[in-house]
Hints:
six-stranded mixed beta sheet, six-stranded antiparallel beta sheet
Amino acid sequence: MSLSLSKGEGLSLKKADGTNLSKITLGLGWDAVARKGFFGGGGEIDLDASIILFDGSKKDIDIVYFGQQTSRDGAIRHSGDNLTGEGDGDDEQIVVDLSRLDRAVQSGVLVITSYSGQKFDQVKNVHARVLDESVSGSPELVRYNLAAGGAHTASIVAKFEREGLGWKFTAIGNAANGKTPQKIVADAQAAL
């Protein structure tokens, strides 16, 4: 059974038996808002999911995005760029092997940016979810549905951070402006 988070809420990333999760998938999805007019339809929305990694002093040390689909330590893999946002479910996924992350990584911030400059008032049903990759079928553990859009080009969606020997996932949902994750590092850092 999946847990639904609200902005600011968090969840320890643990299995049902209380042991720490070792591998997760972060799924992000969105839909285009229907256009007004004769033909309707939502059109194509090109948003990009990324993870900005930080060390213990909150310095950015790596970014996984459509232009660098694997982290330097090989523990994070991006599914690739979805240019339209079409279809149901996740539009982009990022697999994180928590057990292989470099010890210098203390947190990761999940962000969505609009490389083409489309505003978030043009999208709806934006969600982030965590899937447990240690179980057959990769069940959804937690879901965070972001609030309605606005006139911004990026969103600081959520973060995962070390918690003892495990990890914690926290919903954020802050608006930002920047077409690439490199342009919103300071916004992501402020959420730590």
